[in-house]
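Subject: complex prediction, re-run

Hi both,

The earlier run crashed halfway through, so I resubmitted it with identical inputs.
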Amino acid sequence: MNGVIARAWRGIRENRYLSFVSTGVIAAALALLGVFALGILNMRAVLVAWEHDAHISAYVAKDLPAAEAAALRAKVAALPQVETVTWVSEADARAWLGTQVPELAPSMGELARGTLPASMEITLRSGAVRPEALESFVRTLRGLGPWTEIDYGQEWVARIATFVSMLTVTGSMLGVLIAVAAVFLVANTVHLVVFSRRDELAIMRLVGATDGYILGPFVTEGVLQGLVGGLVALGGLWAVYAGVVARLRDALGPALGHDALRFLPPGWCGALVLGGVLVGGLASYGAVRRFLGSLP
Amino acid sequence: MIRLYQVGKSYGDHEALRDVTLSIDKGEFVYVTGPSGAGKSTLLKLLYGATTPSTGKLLVAGIDIAQLQGGRLPQLRRNVGVVFQDFKLLPRRSVGANVALALEVVGAPAEQIRRRVPAVLNIVGLKAREDALASELSGGEQQRVAIARAIVNDPAVLLADEPTGNLDGAMAVEVMEILQAINLRGTTVLVATHDVGLMDRFPHRRVRFEGGRLAPQAGARGRA
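This time it finished cleanly. Structure:
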């Protein structure tokens, strides 16, 4: 085993430029895949955060007694889909409007009582925000009490849900296409690199080397180049993320949601590096095997 | 050592060798001669397993070339050293590393490689250049490195395909002297050449090919 690694290392040293090119192409292909994964991951996170932020405003009749309002609130809170219920009295609504639109604050007292009705602001658990589940929940809610209006932004929720669904499908398809393109790119580059070392392969075969003896160091070189390429791609992604994307989070974070603009999770990072190792090793194996088949 | 019985080799419609029956004994030195395209290189390719015969039977060091499969090709190549006109060295490796390669592929221990490489380079007169890069050597020196690599595993047969084709007169003579010395140590040597001057200077049995067939005048001439 030490002999194989030593011969692989010698191969890399003797072919520095070609090894650099192979490693660079692997790094570039994986970085491309990583950028795409980072983009999809964060777009999905933003959309899910927006979806999760969807809430229901259920307005109650202005003359609803406080005891009935409290009982109604308890009934709503008991529903399994509900995460939180916040009672917003008319006074709370006035105060909120005053803080949001300060120009109106002086004339707030002139607003007639009942202009801003009391409401319950309901947030739902994540599974209940899907359009069909939301419709079903609102039907249940309507049956509970004397609401004057239930506002749940159904069009907005439906659009986000459709977009998340489209992103998941098209993102997966594009991801597969980019991964396949990256594999072909790496395989062709490795094939060209192996082709440029054809004399070395032919001489080894000529002096009696077995296919296994020839393949060992080449595959090891491919694995090492894939490992380095994967780590370089990951480092590059992290640098881009830390330098550019993190600044975007400072500027747009509140609008994007607190979970948005994350780096790739550890499992994805591992998969990226492992992908480099596999592609490097398998591409080398395939290229050398194919070339050995053509040798006398 | 080498036995051919009615051997033929075709590439598509072209018959490179036809009905060749030939026997070469252990320790013989034989010239394979003839004009370009006569079948000399095809014969050598058959002998080191670069191709297999289309017809007939061919045995080299006890190995049936027609039955070469899987692990038998490396086994044949370890018994048959080959020297080419264009040397086929690794230019960015040292002289010693080029010769050591043939020992490394058979799994020779490091100690044996350290001992054997200088000894073989001594035979070809290049011991002092062991650490030089192959690309820094003259044509004659490169051919001597190729010969050292071909004999470092003590092959039973040494094949040389136009080994002096790229060399001037003095260097060609040096290479022939080395090949002759190797033959005197017991190795069967086949040299494909059309250099009549060298064949006359180092007389050995000649086997002449014409149009893929053994020419009628081919025969034993005895040793020098």
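Chain A touches chain B through 14 residues (CB under 8 Å).

- K.
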